[in-house]
Amino acid sequence: MRIILASKSPRRKELLKRLDMDFDIKVSHIDEKSFEKSLPWVYVEKLAYEKAKSVAEAEAGNCLVIGCDTVVVYENEILEKPSNTLQAAEYLKKLSGNKHLVYSGLAIIDVDSNKKYISHEITEVYMKELNEEEITNYIKTGEPLDKAGGYGIQGIGSIFIEKINGDYYNVMGLPLNKLYNGLKKLGVNYFEIVK
Ligand SMILES: Cc1cn([C@H]2C[C@H](O)[C@@H](COP(=O)(O)OP(=O)(O)OP(=O)(O)O)O2)c(=O)[nH]c1=O
């Protein structure tokens, strides 16, 4: 069975690779900004599904398409990838010294049967208090710009994370336990496809 990851995210690619899965990458070209922000779980499930659907539409045969979307939620506000360094600083000031939630939506589409699995995962993250200098220096590393909330738990951002409650891989951008559950629900045995 062919597996397609509908994502340009290097983190999602790396995580799927760690699972020893053989897969292709096809980047979805949906306009993420055109979707209205609603409840975080509704929003990330919708985007994950739209990403997977836009790639699945061009496929045929025995194939699964995986789409995912990750956002940071602080006091009910959805923070996506910052558009510039100013916005990255603004996000990091909000998260500094506080707890926030990371939501990832996951969608798997079975192209042949058109069966779908759509779900989401939530992880609590506690970030230490950051001073202005730490925020400026961190932004200078270039790490924040392509990451929801303006930090990467798997990179330099790790030095600011005091603790998390929940799935680490969800914060990094792909909830692996949910992925396994989703494959199972669609009747796919992970251990069969990595053989
Ligand atoms: C919170 C956090 C997010 N991220 C990343 C994961 C995602 O790549 C990104 C959130 O943006 P997304 O819009 O979910 O994904 P993307 O634009 O990178 O890729 P695509 O839409 O093609 O799938 O933030 C980290 O790498 N580490 C973190 O700690």
> Major sheet: size, sense and barrel closure?
7 strands, mixed
CATH T-level topology: Maf protein
Radius of gyration over all CA atoms, rounded: 17 Å
**Separation of the first and last Cα atoms:** 11 Å
The assigned CATH architecture is Alpha-Beta Complex
Q: Could you tell me the strand content as a percent range?
A: 25-35%
Number of strands: 7
Tally of domains: 1
Specify the number of helices: 7
The H-and-E topology, N to C, reads as EHEHEEHEEHEHHH
SSE class: alpha/beta
Let me know the average pLDDT.
Answer: 96
CATH class: Alpha Beta
Helix content: 25-40%
Q: Runs with pLDDT <50, length 5+? A: none
Q: What is the molecular shape?
A: elongated
Bound molecules: thymidine-5'-triphosphate
Family: Belongs to the Maf family. YhdE subfamily.
Active site: 69 (proton acceptor)
Pfam family, one: Maf
EC number: 3.6.1.9
Q: What do these coordinates show?
A:
There is one protein chain. The protein has 195 residues and is of the alpha/beta class. The chain has a single domain (2-193), classed as Maf protein. Helices cover 33% and strands 26% of the residues. Strands 1, 2, 3, 4, 5, 6 and 7 form a seven-stranded mixed beta sheet that branches. Helix 1 links the parallel strand 1 (2-5) and strand 2 (24-25). Helix 3 crosses helix 4. It is elongated and about 55 Å long. The protein starts with a strand and ends with a helix. 39% of the residues are buried. The structure holds thymidine-5'-triphosphate (TTP). The site of thymidine-5'-triphosphate (TTP) has 24 residues, from helix 1, strand 3 and helix 5.
